[in-house]
């Protein structure tokens, strides 16, 4: 993920913004008796460098997703951003993952980057049809809007959400700075999401602190956390998120998707393990899965 990255983060203020005053009301409106659950994952599983540490030694590429599913319970599925998968492929993905696993497929760029968000294209209908194949393993579809998508384009987004099927949960990320300015021009965006039950994505990245907002629009939070090679601040930032999410859970937050980004995805499991441990310590009532190293140096082991 190149968006918002900095070469040096030593002088960045990583403080989380003050909790939005309206969050408690949002969570009260969407009260649920379901037990809270936190899904923690990375952004890809085809990682040869994880073999022998996070995947068992000798794991073949065809089994990477199976090994990934033993460690994580969700994935920010970028594959769908570039190609709409066929039914057989999705069925195989589902078969290769545990029952509690959730996919968060990214909406194809032919839709997300189109002037009308694909409303005049057959891609949108086909993509939605294919997403139904995930069944119970569907988490949230993730619409990542381009940096040039401004508040003035919100009517298009409103039409898109109106057409989007309610049975597929949707999360939306915006990047244009106008959505986060002090003049409050982005309020209409968050109000649209809240009114339609759409999750607003929070992106925590060093070079764009404005996109790390604190506004909830549903009783689900999706946080994309971009680390800096396990810099000391990666851990302190996670600590701050653990406290913030604990507060939200106490107020009624039911679901969290927390995706760890690290350069080239190499160190994402290390960061995800820290996230799971910290969250589990502060919120013992919340379900989390802690990634564990499969093999220690000098040992042998198999998974399949």
Give a summary of the structure in a few sentences:
The protein is of the alpha/beta class.
Brief descriptors of the model:
304 residues; TIM Barrel; eight-stranded parallel sheet; 10 helices; 14% strand; disordered C terminus
Could you explain how this protein is built, in words?
- It is globular, with a radius of gyration of 19 Å.
- The chain is built from 10 helices and 8 strands.
- The protein is α/β, with parallel strands linked by helices.
- The protein has one domain: Alpha-Beta Barrel (TIM Barrel), CATH 3.20.20.410.
Provide the spatial order of strands within the biggest beta sheet: 3-2-1-8-7-6-5-4
C-alpha termini separation: 32 Å
How many individual helices? 10
Percent range of helical residues: 25-40%
What is the total domain count?
Answer: 1
Quick check: average pLDDT?
93
Topology diagram in text:
Elements lengths: L22 H7 L7 E6 L21 H8 L2 E4 L1 H4 L4 H9 L6 E4 L3 H4 L9 H10 L9 E4 L9 H10 L6 E4 L13 H10 L2 E6 L15 E7 L5 H20 L3 E7 L6 H15 L22
Parallel strand pairs: 1-2, 1-8, 2-3, 4-5, 5-6, 6-7, 7-8
Helix pairs in contact: 7-8, 9-10
């Amino acid at each position: 993920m190149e968006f918002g990255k900095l070469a040096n983060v030593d002088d960045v203020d990583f403080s989380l913004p003050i909790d939005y005053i309206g969050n408690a009301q949002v969570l009260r409106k969407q009260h649920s008796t379901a037990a809270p659950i936190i899904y923690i994952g990375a952004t890809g599983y085809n990682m040869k460098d994880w073999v022998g540490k996070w995947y068992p030694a000798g794991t073949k590429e065809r089994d990477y997703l199976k090994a990934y599913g033993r460690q994580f319970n969700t994935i920010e599925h970028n594959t769908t951003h570039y190609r709409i998968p066929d039914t057989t492929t999705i069925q195989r993905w589902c078969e290769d993952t545990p029952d509690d696993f959730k996919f968060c497929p990214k909406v194809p760029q032919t839709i997300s980057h189109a002037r009308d968000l694909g409303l005049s294209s057959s891609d949108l209908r086909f993509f939605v049809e294919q997403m139904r194949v995930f069944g119970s393993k569907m988490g949230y579809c993730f619409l990542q809007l381009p940096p040039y998508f401004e508040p003035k384009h919100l009517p298009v987004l409103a039409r898109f959400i109106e057409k989007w099927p309610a049975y597929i949960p949707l999360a939306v990320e915006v990047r244009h700075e106008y959505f986060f300015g002090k003049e409050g021009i982005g309020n209409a965006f968050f109000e649209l999401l809240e009114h339609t039950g759409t999750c607003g994505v929070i992106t925590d990245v060093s070079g764009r602190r404005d996109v790390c907002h604190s506004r909830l629009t549903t009783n689900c939070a999706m946080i994309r956390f971009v680390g800096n090679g396990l810099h000391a601040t990666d851990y302190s930032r996670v600590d701050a998120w653990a406290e913030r999410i604990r507060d939200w859970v106490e107020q009624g937050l039911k679901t969290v998707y927390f995706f760890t980004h690290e350069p080239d995805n190499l160190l994402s499991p290390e960061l995800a393990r820290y996230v799971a441990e910290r969250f589990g310590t502060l919120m013992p009532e919340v379900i989390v899965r802690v990634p564990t190293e499969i093999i220690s140096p000098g040992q042998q082991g198999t998974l399949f």
